[in-house]
Amino acid sequence: MKDYDGYNYQKYRELALNKNLSVYEKIGFPDSYRKGVEDKIFQDILLKCPLLNSKERLNVLDIGPGCSNLQKYIFKICKEKQHSLYLSDSPEMLDLIDNDSNNIIKVPGMFPDTFDKIKSLCANGFDIIICYSVFHYIFVDSNVWYFLDCLLELMNEGAQTIIGDIPNISKRKRFFASNNGIKFHQEFMQTDEIPEVKFNCIEKGKIDDSLLHSVIMKCQNSGYDAYIVPQAIELPFANRRDDIIIRRP
Ligand SMILES: C[S@@+](CC[C@H](N)C(=O)[O-])C[C@H]1O[C@@H](n2cnc3c(N)ncnc32)[C@H](O)[C@@H]1O
Fold first, then answer.
1. Cα(107)–Cα(123) distance, integer angstroms
2. Taking the model in full, what pTM does it have?
């Protein structure tokens, strides 16, 4: 298994170089899924990581920032609050991010391969870590348990982390087996058909409840609080993706 629904770190390097794509397409979304929605995603992230807005001069790490407006909103608040913003993404993706500010520190490469470099650049650790719509690629390209060890090690006492927008096949099935899910499918696909949902089967290469709950236990066993939480209802993937919040006591 080398990709998640056709995407992985390498694929994003290619998309970043393709001049014919919109900023949303470069990060793997049709325009309709992200255009005009990213401010709502940002507000949802603020709710889950309130330190971003409530304190100043913090260290913030964005793993897989991409190049669309969500990255710009995160950059803007970091500038306003005088946070130092560290970005770990491919060199091709980072090249698309304006370099007009001395509060941005780019660390090109795939996380957690960039862990040592990040740690050497920011020995004081991080107060906020954002990893939005990236976990499923780390799941295929890397080792999620090692990723988590690195992530947790980077978190200061009191730090807040969001691992957001994780596709969860179990949640997707629960939704499409429900009356609301059937209605959604029929309206979206312009059909009278009932969506096919199979339970008690192998879902090869997909993230499900068992993995998300194991991530929570891994964080808790490491001494951190962790929660699976829903996305704001108006977000495009709210019915089939989950967010994880991690807090270091
Ligand atoms: C779906 S986009 C999400 C971008 C941004 N976080 C957002 O939600 O708007 C995934 C991004 O993660 C980056 N990425 C994928 N795997 C990564 C990894 N292991 N380390 C760092 N960045 C990664 C891709 O290059 C891409 O920019």
1. 14
2. 0.97
